[in-house]
Amino acid sequence: MIDTPRTIHQISQRQHNEDRLRRADSWLRRSEAAKDDTERFIFLWIAFNAAYGRETLPSHSDIQRTEREKFRSFLREILERDDDGVLEDALWRTFSGPIRVLLENRYVFDPFWDAVRDRDPTAGKNWKKKFSDSKRSVLRSVEERNVHRVLTVLFTRLYTLRNQIVHGGATFATGWGQDQVRDGSRIMASLVPSILKIMRADIERNPESGVWEPVAFPRVNDDPR
Q1: d(CA 94, CA 107)
Q2: Is the backbone of residue 178 left (phi > 0), alpha (psi -120 to 50) or beta?
Q3: How far apart, in whole angstroms, are the C-alpha atoms of residue 169 and residue 171?
Q4: Alpha carbon of 60 to those of 53, 91, 214: distances in Å?
Q5: Distance CA 61, CA 69 (A)
Q6: What is the pLDDT of residue 178?
Q7: String of DSSP letters for 85-118
């Protein structure tokens, strides 16, 4: 006889929070043993996804939010709880290196691919201007210390890179594509631990904190895996 699993409403927010952190930490530890940049980037993205992913209940008004909107909202929640500036320090520490390089890489800029796919008759002419405007906007945000704006642009580019890898849009080989994978891996290795540190501190202060919401795949029995 198959046991009836617990429903999401029967699981405490405390357990959701504990499971969220445990899962994210497990993938972060796995990334530390990765054999190459591609493997490391994938494991770090899974750790990040474990942290921000959530089950949107029917009663929530944001049920139609895109994945990008979800992690943008998540980053805002993280920054609001970054009392010690942990994530901000990690961002500025790596900005002049791999972050700046990635932001200048057209291959992780969605409008570039829109032009390649010929989805919009004007895309071919407009992507370069959008790319230039985006870089200027980021530099202005850096000057204004607008951390959320910089992180939003950065993770949007990283999400494009994630899609290229996970959906088989790049070849696993040296050469084309390795620069952005290398930079993406280094950026994630710097930012993800800081994100989890902030989340952990918030949950330790308030184990029942509902700001992180239920996980998408809740633990339905006593097995912590």
Answers
A1: 20
A2: alpha
A3: 7
A4: 15, 31, 12
A5: 13
A6: 79
A7: -HHHHHHHHHIIIIIHHHHT-GGG-HHHHHHHHT
Which of 152, 158, 148, 156 is closest to 185 using CA atoms? 158
Tokens of 144: 């204004």
Are the C-beta atoms of residues 56 and 33 closer than 8 Å to each other? no
State the Cα–Cα distance between residues 153 and 141, nearest whole angstrom.
10
Q: What is the pLDDT of residues 89-114, one digit of tens each?
A: 999 988 989 999 999 999 999 989 88
Q: For the stretch 19-42, what's the b/e string if a residue is b when 16 or more beta carbons lie within 10 angstroms of its beta carbon?
A: bbbebbbebbebbeebeebbebbb
Give the global pTM: 0.88
- In the chain, where the domains are located: 10-104+140-212
